[in-house]
Amino acid sequence: NAGVTQTPKFQVLKTGQSMTLQCAQDMNHEYMSWYRQDPGMGLRLIHYSVGAGITDQGEVPNGYNVSRSTTEDFPLRLLSAAPSQTSVYFCASSATSGRATEQFFGPGTRLTVL
Amino acid sequence: EDQVTQSPEALRLQEGESSSLNCSYTVSGLRGLFWYRQDPGKGPEFLFTLYSAGEEKEKERLKATLTKKESFLHITAPKPEDSATYLCAVHQAGTALIFGKGTTLSVSS
Q: CB within 8 A of B39, min separation 6: which ones?
């Protein structure tokens, strides 16, 4: 199993550009989520999904869109990048969203917005 | 206010010098508390899940414990390869994981 994969590893954007961060998992997990990690802020939840076709907002959803058309994939879209979105983005998945089960994290995407 | 607070922010130890990291939480309806290890430039790696007060789990030099208000990650006789940032997260009923800001551990030989 590859686990949770993310592409790209690094990305530089100009303000106003759009892009999609890709996330895929091969563990047949129901629950997937996106976090951003900033110095001194810890991991903050952006959006999450409890299954295909179901998504919801986390703590910091503004400026981001998500969709979940398959169990395996959960892309994160930046519609109009802003410097405040410079961060490291992590995708995670877990078997369920009910009983607390561990989340498995991808390697991250380091995004810089100029 | 922070619902998950980790202390200290940074900890420097000599190889073999045992210590503990603290994670205090104020959430109600705790469904689970998680410990992760994060190496620079990588994603968090799962270590332990604790579900109820009094529970303990061990893995090599690490031992995690849980009370009704806090969790400790005890590191016994650490080695340089234990250097990393340790993250604590809680799963509260009806919400997603809430992470603390982490403790950065440096172990020198």
A: B45, B84, B85
